Amino acid sequence: MKLILASGSVRRAEVLQSAGFVFETVSTNIDETLREAEPPDVYVLRLADAKARAAAARITGGALVIGADTTVVIDGLVLGKPETADEAKQMLARLSGRTHEVLTGLAVIRIPGGDARIQEERTRVTFASMTQKEIEDYVASGEPFDKAGAYAIQGMAGRFVTRVDGCYFNVVGLPLARLYRILRDFGWSGGATS
After folding, report:
1. Res 161 pLDDT > 60
2. Hey, how many other C-beta atoms are within 10 angstroms of the C-beta on 149?
3. Cα–chain center distance at 30
4. How far apart are the C-alpha atoms of 115 and 133, rounded to whole Å?
5. Three-class SS string for the chain?
6. Does the structure show a pLDDT above 50 at 193?
7. Is 69 known to be catalytic?
8. Which residue, 22, 57, 114, 172, shows the most beta carbons closer than 10 Å to its own?
9. Which one, of 186, 189, 174, 154, lies nearest residue 64 by Cα?
10. Centroid of chain to Cα 65
11. pLDDT at 191
12. CA distance 62 to 96
């Protein structure tokens, strides 16, 4: 049974490739707007499910379709992808010297049939204190854009991370061990290369 990653995210694809998974990608275009008073965990689960279902609707034949959505939460606020340099700087200043949570909603749908598993992974990440110049230089690098919370742990922002409690790959955008357990529960046993 083939695997389909319902994402155009290079980071998620790299996580799967590095772990030896064989898969195809199908990009989806869904509305990622946070609903009024929507809790962060409900938000990521809803989007992961929507992405997986949007991709599943375009697939023929047997497959397991993987959808994921990741966000950063601090002080009860959801930090999505910054749209401007100023917004990225504000996000990073809020994260500086503090611990935040990274939440990923993960949805796997079997087609045909539509049987689904939808779960959430949480990881706590602690940042060192960052100077204003460090924040400005990091934002000027361009890396914070298109990333929840305005940082990429696997990139230059890794230098600011002092502690990770939980799944590192969750912070990258795809909780690999949880995904593998879900796939096994579906009876999937192939697709890994040596």
Report:
1. yes
2. 29
3. 15
4. 50
5. CEEEECCCCHHHHHHHHHCCECCEECCCCCCCCCCCCCCHHHHHHHHHHHHHHHHHCCCCCCEEEEEEEEEEEECCEEECCCCCHHHHHHHHHHHCCCEEEEEEEEEEEEECCCCEEEEEEEEEEEECCCCHHHHHHHHHCCCCCCCHHHCCCCCHHHHHEEEEECCHHHHHCCCHHHHHHHHHHCCCCCCECC
6. no
7. yes
8. 172
9. 186
10. 15
11. 52
12. 46
Q: Which has the closest alpha carbon to 134: 171, 161, 112, 108?
A: 161
Dist CA 94 CA 135 (whole Å): 11
Average pLDDT, the chain: 94
Cα Rg of the chain, angstroms: 17
Is residue 108 a contact partner of residue 53, using CB atoms and an 8 Å limit? no
- Using CB atoms within 10 Å of the CB of residue 193, give its burial: 0 to 12 exposed, 13 to 18 middle, 19+ buried: exposed
The structure tokens listed for 39 are: 């809790």
For residue 14, CA distances in Å to 9, 30, 65 come to 9, 22, 17
**Cβ 99 vs Cβ 75: under 8 Å:** no
Please compute the mean of the pLDDT values over residues 75-90 and round it to a whole number: 95
Where b means 16+ CB within 10 Å and e means fewer, 80-97 reads bbbeeeebbbebbebbbe
Q: What pTM value is reported for the model? A: 0.91
Query: Which pair of structure tokens corresponds to residue 38?
Result: 């929507």
